[in-house]
Structure formats: structure tokens, C-alpha cells
Amino acid sequence: MVKITYHREGDYLIPDLYLEKNYKNDYQIGKYGHLRLQYLKEHKKAEYTIMLLDGTLRKHIVDTDIQAKERLEILMNQMLEKNPIDENLKDTDPLKWAGLMSNYKHSAEEIIYSELIFC
Questions:
Q1: How do residues 38-49 score in pLDDT, each as one tens digit?
Q2: Average pLDDT for residues 6-15, to the nearest whole number?
Q3: Within 10 A of 58 (CB to CB), how many other CB atoms are there?
Q4: I need a surface site. Which of 44, 63, 69, 84 has the fewest CB within 10 A?
Q5: Average of per-residue pLDDT across 58-80
Q6: How many C-beta atoms surround the C-beta of residue 108 within 10 A?
Q7: Residue 86: pLDDT band by 50, 70, 90 thresholds?
Q8: 23: buried, middle or exposed (CB in 10 Å: 19+, 13-18, 0-12)?
Q9: What is the average pLDDT across 87-109?
């Protein structure tokens, strides 16, 4: 059983809720973890509250962030294998190269959003 502490604000007792720090303390939560956290807060309030109270929210957010980063790397490599971009293009037409790479990244992120973040 998790013991919840409270602090007083005026006539109200407010629970002291926070993300636990005991799971991968040195890990900085990135873009995908923050997106998942925001989605849980706004659209899955009951699930968010349960994870916050039982101490699994940080683990969920960190694991989601790590999985999303790994999945992005895998998807980018797969896209570059199927539709290679000539490295000479980086020197001859850097804007076109950046545009193509950006397109691949956005496509991969759409997959990550639907599979891991907004589900």
C-alpha cells in the first residue's frame, strides 16, 4: 500500500503527488515521453491517476520514451534501405537532402505516435 502525504492550503488538504525518482534516475525524459505524459493527463485521466498513485507513471513514461527513440531509429533505417538517399546529394543539394530526411522522420514519427504515444 502506498502512503500518500498531504499538505494544507487554506482549508484544503492537497495530496503530495509527484513522479517517483527511483526508476532510472539519470534518464532525462525526452520528446516522446513528454508527449505520452501530456496525452495521459488530457485523454486518459483515470489511467494517469492510477499510475501516479501506484508509482508506475515514471517507469511508463521512461519506457515509452526509450521505445519510441529505438523505433524511430529502426524506421529511419528501414526507410533509407528501401528508398536510399544519395550521400552526394548532401553536398550538391543540401536543401533537397534535408527535405527528404525530414519527410522520412515525419513519416516515422506518425507511426510512433499511433503505435506508442496516442494509444
A1: 999 999 999 998
A2: 88
A3: 22
A4: 84
A5: 96
A6: 20
A7: confident
A8: middle
A9: 94
Amino acid making up residue 107: S
The three cell numbers of residue 18 are: 509527484
27 grid coordinates: 534518464
Contacts 24+ apart (CB under 8 A), 17-20: 17/52, 17/53, 19/52, 19/57, 19/58, 19/61, 20/55, 20/57, 20/58
Cell, residue 92: 550538391
Say if residues 33 and 22 touch (Cβ distance below 8 Å). Answer: no
Instruction: Please identify which residue in the block is written with the cell numbers 488530457.
Output: 42
Give 58-69 as a 3 state SS string.
HHHHHHHHHHHH
Q: What are phi and psi of 14, to 5 degrees?
A: -105, 130
